[in-house]
Amino acid sequence: MVQSLSHFIAICSDSIGETAEAVVQATMRQFDLPNTEIKRYMNVRDEEELRQMMEEVAERGGLVAYTLALPELREAIKEEAVRLNVRVVDVMGPMMQAVADTFNNDPFEKPGLLHRMDEPYFKRVEAMDFAVQYDDGKDVSAILKADIILLGVSRISKTPLSMFLAHKGYKTVNYPLVPELTPPAQLYERLEGKIFGLTINAEHLLKIRSERLKVMGLPNNAQYASMERIQEELAYANRIFGELGCPVIDVTDKAIEETAGLILNDLLR
């Protein structure tokens, strides 16, 4: 007998399931449902494998979010949903049907097209390598090579935001702003539209830094996590943002995806 958590959501895909999981994760942020397990079933390509998955979901009282390109698997999961009384959600199907109906065009119905090794794929890989190589101001010369430059104080989520944007195909470099260090001269070399300043509520940053010190086993009374120091750093950062004339985004309580969306909307405007 499988031991069930309070809530169980299965991701079923004939590829890697990234699209369906992103939708599920975004949805779950709207609910207070602790102890929820989200499990991916990837590369599902035959009906027997699909049936086994559905039986596990039924036993655990869960639901399924699926992205299946093959028509036979899409039909099979609907049949299993009726047989086992399991709720299933077709993440990609309605959009595919809408495109087909509107533009009078049939889908390829091939699994894994999102992750095929084409030009956009290699662009993402190159951007990811760039973000890792030049993370946290390792080489200021990267500023002139970047599509996006992120500026902000320590522990404001510059690195994860850089990686997220890189996954979208944008070469992103981030540089920490510290009152004791003069910003790189490259930032002032006509980079309008590429630079974005990140700021945050001081009390929120205090909690983040205090937790960081705790994880590292350091005393929580270090200057790094003092309100006076944090306010000094944020004020300094805002002064630099003003000098550069760049957009400033308050990341307090924002998900990485939300901040990235604001940046890309501004960048592509």
UniProtKB/TrEMBL annotation:
Pfam annotation, one family: Kinase-PPPase
Coiled-coil regions, chain positions: none
Keywords linked to the UniProt accession: Kinase, Nucleotide-binding, Pyruvate, Serine/threonine-protein kinase, Transferase
Highest taxon of the lineage: Bacteria
Protein's job: Bifunctional serine/threonine kinase and phosphorylase involved in the regulation of the pyruvate, phosphate dikinase (PPDK) by catalyzing its phosphorylation/dephosphorylation.
Stated family: Belongs to the pyruvate, phosphate/water dikinase regulatory protein family. PDRP subfamily.
Name this protein carries in UniProt: Putative pyruvate, phosphate dikinase regulatory protein
Organism: Paenibacillus enshidis
